[in-house]
Design brief:
Layout lengths: L2 H10 L23 H9 L3 H4 L5 H10 L3 H12 L1
Length: about 80
């Protein structure tokens, strides 16, 4: 099994409230997110695109901007306007 499939399978076992995109003004906490240490680890392992829709919109937009990911950046902006 390749690493991408493995991390996807792990996310399948995590409760949905931890993996949904948070509102722009919603702070990340232990009750609604995986926690910054886990985010840093997932990022360090190279799975940054898996993080885009699990954090709050502000942090996700910054991450997309950093990696010049215009597709997901624009998708997040569209979700903000809904």
């Amino acid at each position: 099994m390749i690493a991408h499939e493995a991390i996807h399978n792990v996310f399948g076992l995590i409760a949905p409230q931890y993996l949904t995109l948070k509102r722009f003004d919603e702070p990340l906490s232990d009750k609604n997110s995986l926690g910054m240490d886990n985010y840093r680890l997932i990022f360090a392992l190279g799975f940054w695109k898996k993080l885009v829709y699990t954090m709050n919109v502000s942090t996700s937009l910054h991450l997309c901007y950093k990696f010049a990911d215009t597709y997901n950046f624009n998708n997040l902006l569209d979700r903000m306007s809904d």
